[in-house]
Structure formats: C-alpha cells, structure tokens
Write a structure and sequence with these properties.
Blueprint (H helix, E strand, L loop, with lengths): L12 H57 L4 H21 L1 H26 L6 H16 L12
Length: 155
Amino acid sequence: MAASTDAPTRLSPLELAQRLRTEIERMRDEATRQRNLAHRRADFWAKADIALGFPAALLAGTAGAAGLASADVRIPAALAALASAGFAAGAGFLHSDTRRRANKRARHAWASVEAGAMVALNQELVSSEDLSDLLELRQAALAAYDGEEPLSGPS
C-alpha cells in the first residue's frame, strides 16, 4: 500500500498573492451583480409603492367626496372606498417602502464592497488583510437587507 502525503503544500508569496487576487476579483464581480440587483429591486419596490399607494389615496378621496355629495352615489362611493381599502391593505401587507429602503441600503453596501475590491486590485500585491476587510464589508452588505437604518443624532 502506497503512503499518501496529506501534508499541506506551501505556496510561494507570489502564488498566494495570485490566489488572493483571484478571490478579490470574484468578490468584486459578485458585488457588481448584487449592487445592480439591489438597484433593480429598489426601483421595483418604489414603483409598487406608488402603484398601490396612489390609487388608494385617489379612491379614498373620491369616495369621500362622492359619498358626501349625494345620496344617490353612496353605493358607488362605498365600492370605491372598499377598493381604496384593498389597495391600502396591499401596500401595508407588502411593506414596499420598507423593502425599497432596504434595497437602497444594500445597494450602497455592495457598492462599498465593489469599491474596496477595486482599490485592493489596484495594489501591486494584495494581502490577506485586504481580503479580510472585503469579507467584513460583504457581511455588512448581506446584513443591509435585514437591518434598520442607523439612527441619526446622539444615542
């Protein structure tokens, strides 16, 4: 039976730097994709917020004015009020404004990862500290979808 050597292979500093550079390039590409995706999602949720909120406000105002104007239009006004309530409930259920803000935060966080990777790649030799810094920025970008906006002012 032949003996296998499971000893770790030692990389030269140049080989290590090349592997780090490859990983940083991969992270830059991921950050670019995620930034673009967060941008498209923020746009979608902004449109969804308007598409649900504007008709709700318009129908509510119309229903109120029509209901007070004449007794003959109270039933159509009530139907318009029900439709308005449906739009408002849909907007509340989807939390489109909250999702839009979360995707905007994520877009900015992914842009930071992308910029950090570009700065690291412009160096002649990249280090493991560069990769570590990028991994921290990546974790912050992933958390940006769930996190709340930082409070302004003193804590």
